[in-house]
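TA notes. Do not distribute before section.
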Amino acid sequence: MATPKSRWYALAALALSTLAIGLDTTILSVALPTLSRDLHATTGDLQWFTNAYLLVLAAVLLPAGMLGDRFGRKKLLTGALFVFGTASAACAWSATTGQLIAARAVLGLGAAVLMPLSGAVLTVLFDDKERSKALSVWLTASALGIPLGPLLGGWLLDHFWWGSVFLINVPLVAIALVAVALWVPESHGDRARRFDPLGVLLSAAGLVALTYGIIEAGDRGWGDARSLGTMIGGAVLLAAFVWWQRRARSPLADLDLFRSRAFTGGAVLATVASFAMLGLLFALPQYFSAVGGQDAFGSGLRLLPVIGGLLLGARTAEKLAARVGNRLVIAAGLGLMTVALVAGSFTGASSGYGFVAAWITAAGIGLGCTLPPSMDAALGALSPERSGVGNGLLQAMRQVGGAIGVAVLGTVLNSAYRADLPAGLPPQARESAASGVAAAQGDAGVEHAIQAAFTHGMDVSLLVAAAIAAAGAILALFMLPGRVHAAPVEEERLVLAESGL
């Protein structure tokens, strides 16, 4: 007979699965130079190693939530973990670029099911008082993958072959599979909901087109006709999806969720936080490498203050939200992120790591005060029968927001960097700061010019991220209710109580 502690064991299983996804987000970047050499991968191949994963993820998030509600979240979680582990092994032993791209696409399929359904299970397992703490653990596990990816990836590449960076997922998935089987109870949503094939087609095509257009814009620039056309096409398809959902008898996405201020505000503000932070985490590793001269391991190590700040912020937010509500805590968190990002915009090529560590710690605290309470506000508005679909919507918004953040802030950084480069530098400098520094061959004057231009570009991008965070702080005060109460979940909890959970 399971004890009440079983729900925390179940949380550990879900946290392991999100840690594996978080690791996969960043660990690949460390291996790209090795993959280019060993698999004779072109620049296009290297882009598709990432894009294949992201596009499948975007396409499957919404239907995954609905399928979990209908057929059982535990069943789909177990299947998704098996798919994710198998695809990780397939990535490790790929012999060609085509095989690796295909394996990465399957990996994205597993992640697309894990992300919304693990959140949906949390909504059922934990009540209003415990859910905030559980969400903090769950989100921190995912965030830990950001610095741990380069750390583990760098160490593995120094000691083993490149496939080891993918095999690191396998033991995590194996432990999570056993834990899910033992401690995660089966739960369902609306089992009578019919499948919505047109909704699936429109949402998948729209999210894929929008995400791909954003990715291309990050590489080609926002004035590129193909990128703009793809984004506009994706937006049109998503508009058609919304139109169809209003008329379908059994819609894929329950758009009535957006009638709730708590769900809408929480989803929008979680997306804003993802936009600002993923853009920040896009710039920092490049800064540590091109300006600080760090390898992947050293860069990952220097990102750890962000995670420390996130842990501190989440712990603080949990206590404050119980007293004053999520609205003020989220607004304060985004306000702190704004201040930290503005402070970061004063970073120069000669700035010491102590200054950088201080402002990225503050940014992490702000994220910890923003993301868990925002997710808590959104998830608290969901009843158990709608938690799968609601989580699918929430994760899709965060995924697109993160992709937009990387593309927009990456474009701002690159544009400002190139505009600040003096004439007469090696042509590789226009490709990236790291390539330019490598081509400088120890010429201190050239290296300093490239590093100064890069920090200028990063500072401009941080100011843009600060403006987004400031807008989010203002939105929090208007979009969220003063107090957020969880949706009634007693019927589902009685079922879990009968199972000893």
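Switch to the second chain here.
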Amino acid sequence: MRAVPIAFLIAAIAGAAGAQEFEVVSIRPNKSLDSHSGTHTDGGIMTATNVSLRSLIMMAYEIRDYQLEGPNWLGSERFDIAAKFPGAMPKEREAYNNAFHAMVRKMLDDRFKLAIHRDSKTFRLQELAIEKGGIKFKESPDRDSHNSDSRNTHYTGSSVSMAAFAVFLSQTGDYPVLDKTGLKGFYDLKLDWGTEPDGPSLADALRDQLGLKLETRRAPLEIIVVDHVEKVPTEN
């Protein structure tokens, strides 16, 4: 059998990944002025209702709000989207997510003519790390991930990654939280905290219940800067 050059294989793989895109996409403006929005996938269809262009870009590039710089109207222009997945999607979670985000980026490029560049900006942030005594939770199978919180005093996570848990902590505190635990698996987590004297602080709860800690510092993070984007998408 004739050997295939490694460079050719790499180029073929990159080309296949870059070609990943939704089979069919319908985008319609949403003028309801409703404050609620949502995105979910079911039966090979991604349905997004009343989503802002800003949230779509954040989804596509897997970034938080503070990492996106662009015109103010990104948050006010809203759309309803139905997008059909291609027939074959990866089964493994990380590969699936990579393919999904690549398809959303392709949709934004094609339909909104999005052009961006990457830069860096220094933020005050917190890093999620492991306490000296080690973690106090166990790895779980890679299955559907769910998480919920109640009144910012209780968190339950099922098969969540540390990166996803760090995103949750970012939403409860004053600073972005980055995962620096080095843990690559998926975990079932429970966390209870409160406002003293009614309950432990978040920092104490992380230490005592999970064996984790938050360390504050300043560091540069990658940001996405929007160079060009159209308010009105190309026709369906």
